Amino acid sequence: MKVTIRRTGNDLSAYVPKKDLEEPIVEVENEGLWGGFVVLRNGWRLLLPDLPKDTQLPVTVEAKKMVNDAAQSETS
Fold first, then answer.
1. Is Cytoplasm one of the keywords (predicted)?
2. Is residue 25 part of a domain?
3. Were 3 and a residue from 13, 24, 45, 63 both cysteine, which residue would form a disulfide, CB within 3.0 to 4.6 Å?
4. Domain annotation covers residue 75
5. pTM, two decimal places
6. 54-63 b/e (C-beta count within 10 Å ≥ 16 → b)
7. pLDDT of residue 68
8. Residue 73 lies in a domain
């Protein structure tokens, strides 16, 4: 699913246009953000692609929603 990651003040947020959903990112697996999962305030876990650490924000990426610790493609 397409997800836009942006900085809001000192925090990060994720916007999912298909769901018209914007949530703060409350946990990141990797300090550099990319190549690991993030957890949104609503509980969604998204696996982000492996991008360079200095990638400029905001950026739209193809992320996978993780369900039961397995990445799944969004089909709806």
1. no
2. yes
3. 63
4. no
5. 0.85
6. eeeeeeebeb
7. 77
8. no
Q: How many CB atoms lie within 10 A of CB 67?
A: 10
pLDDT tens digits for 2-30?
Answer: 999 999 889 999 999 999 999 999 999 99
CATH of the domain at 33: 2.40.50.240
Instruction: Confirm if 33 and 52 have CB atoms less than 8 A apart.
Output: no
Q: Return the structure tokens found at 35.
A: 């190549």
Is the separation of the CB atoms in 23 and 17 below 8 Å? Answer: no
Q: What are the contacts of 39-44 at 24+ separation with CB within 8 A?
A: 40/14
44 inside domain: yes
In which domain, by residue range, is 28 found? 2-68
